[in-house]
Write a structure and sequence with these properties.
With about 250 residues, the protein is of the alpha/beta class. The chain has one domain: 3-Layer(aba) Sandwich (Rossmann fold). It has nine helices and seven strands. Strands 3-2-1-4-5-6-7 form a seven-stranded parallel β-sheet, sandwiched between helices. It is globular, with a radius of gyration of 17 Å. The mean pLDDT is about 95.
Length: about 250
């Protein structure tokens, strides 16, 4: 599953799972673009990658803004000549306000949808013109997509739909589009958002009864970005310890 030399853009790479993705890909020889709205966090990750001997570039981006996404893609193309992979990881979760759909402020809901769902489409539209046949897009979904709890679930269900539609649209161009749907993963965001007792009860019902780790997700990401997945597209891959079983 060699990715050496490939130019991979990772959004939301300034912390959490996105940081693990960016650092892990750089360790495999990727020329990694750390894309984030938080410049300080993004530059910190780039410095860490450089200190470990990897190659990385920070690029500021608001994934909900088409001009911002287009500027990022153009800058990466100017620097590297092409984009080989796009990882749409950026999302609002740890600071998300969970309010019923019937009462959530619509301006706030539009902001969440713009980042968590449409951000994947905005970034794809910006990066695809610079991608060649053999390119790959991996969207970050969630098992929450099938739980229908709140508008976070709604946005992730939308990500699944975007993944499948883009897989059909981009297949003739030789570009694959897949998604990873993590189950409960041990991150600061999860610990901040979900009560410990609820986490324990959720994990106890899973066939592989432990929290996932970002490293678990990284292994799936590497496969989906690599040529080993050359005939895989339109897949929403659960990496969830069996939390959500689909026949």
């Amino acid at each position: 599953m060699s990715l050496a030399g490939k130019v991979i853009v990772v959004t939301g790479a300034g912390q959490g799972i996105g940081e693990v993705y960016a650092r892990g890909l750089a360790a495999l020889g990727c020329r990694t673009v750390v894309a984030d709205v938080n410049a300080a966090q993004g530059e910190r990750v780039v410095a860490a990658i450089g200190a470990a001997g990897g190659e990385a570039l920070f690029a500021h981006v608001d994934v909900s803004s088409e001009p911002s996404a287009q500027a990022l893609a153009a800058a990466v193309h100017a620097r590297h000549g092409a984009i080989d992979g796009l990882v749409n990881n950026a999302a609002m979760f740890g600071t998300l306000e969970f309010t019923p759909l019937l009462s959530v402020d619509l301006a706030y809901l539009n902001r969440v949808v713009g980042v968590n769902m449409l951000g994947a489409l905005v970034m794809a539209r910006a990066c695809v013109p610079y991608m060649r046949a053999g390119g790959a897009i991996v969207n970050q979904s969630s098992t929450a997509a099938w739980m229908h709890y709140d508008y976070y679930s709604l946005t992730k269900l939308g990500v699944n739909g975007i993944t499948c539609v883009l897989a059909r649209e981009l297949g003739p161009r030789g570009i694959r589009v897949n998604a990873i749907a993590p189950g409960p993963t041990d991150t600061e965001a999860l610990r901040a958002k979900v009560p410990e007792d609820y986490i324990k009860s959720m994990v106890a019902q899973m066939p592989l009864a432990r929290l996932g780790t970002p490293q678990d997700l990284l292994k799936a990401l590497v496969f989906l970005l690599s040529d080993d997945a050359a005939w895989v597209t339109g897949l929403v891959m659960n990496v969830d310890g069996g939390q959500w079983l689909r026949a």
